[in-house]
Known about the structure:
Structural class of chain B: alpha+beta
Shape of chain A: globular
Number of strands of chain A: 8
Strand order of the largest sheet of chain B: 1-2
Order of helices and strands of chain A: EHEHHHEEHEHEHHEHHEHHHH
Mean pLDDT of chain B: 77
Strand order of the largest sheet of chain A: 3-4-2-5-1-6-7-8
Oligomer: heterodimer
Radius of gyration of chain B: 20 Å
Amino acid sequence: MAKVLVVTSGKGGVGKTTSTAALGAALAQAGQTVVVVDFDVGLRNLDLVMGAERRVVFDLVNVIQGDAKLAQALIRDKRVDTLSLLPASQTRDKDALTPEGVARVVADLREKFDWVICDSPAGIERGATLAMRHADLAVVVTNPEVSSVRDSDRIIGLLDSKTERAERGERMEKFLLLTRYDAARASRGDMLKTEDVLEILSIPLLGIIPESQEVLRASNIGSPVTLSSPDSPPGRAYFDAARRLRGETVPVNVPEDKRGLVQRLFSRRVA
Amino acid sequence: MKLLSFLSRRGSAPIARERLQIVLAHERAMNGSSGDLVRLLQEEILAVVARHVKIERDMVQIKLDRGDSISTLEIDIQMPAEVAPAH
Lengths: 271, 87
């Protein structure tokens, strides 16, 4: 049965789009059929991160308004053939997404794919609530930093009240994806620890993605990090997270500070 | 001296954690489903007290803590130094 997953966070810039691309690709690389849907109408970026920006003809809003068929708007990935993208439009009309239209498109996508992954815009406005509306489960992307944790807490509240599932009185599955984790800062005590964030937000951990050059490189070249650097620490962390999404039990790997003691003491004194 | 201060430095993460816990406890009460109840109670209690005593809005504070087995409703009403009838 198809699963609709929303990747959300409240705060912008924490890694929603990167994580949508990486998780979507990882699931597709494991043989699942996956569509990643960009809900950030007006500020689309998932196409760029996926390397499909020059192949966009029709988009989500065209489909909702009946100007294009769903099959015309879907872009099949050139590297993984079970992976597709439904891009957002660049219209500035905030009301382009209608609740009925979104419901219809999500229902159609459920028929075609194992996973429908909705990349939410930042904020708690219409775009964000529509992205989460039909989700069966949610990945809350959080940086170990106060403003991100606070916004995640707010989003968790919305997931538990404004989604279809919540309104039916069903449980909304929510997972924490901790991104931009810096092991060196964590060991200095200058970054919220994983346990702190988990205790505060009290949702299960899907994975910890270390801060890495590879993530930036992946978006530079337009490839999900699980495709461009599958063996890098962030690549492996996303693969593990995707396996957990499928219900597998995989031990969580907490990134460690790999620099030597002398090096660490030195950088401390300099800092 | 400098090295010593580095060794004894605690890091800012514990402060972040503490600040978050406090602000979220407050925000959850206001934004959650119990937020409406808290606001309603505050309005009605304020109305009742104001009928008899001259009182400012922020002198009635209500806090609702929902726990797993026990929930507490804390009502804190500050009274003016001289309790004068409202009319």
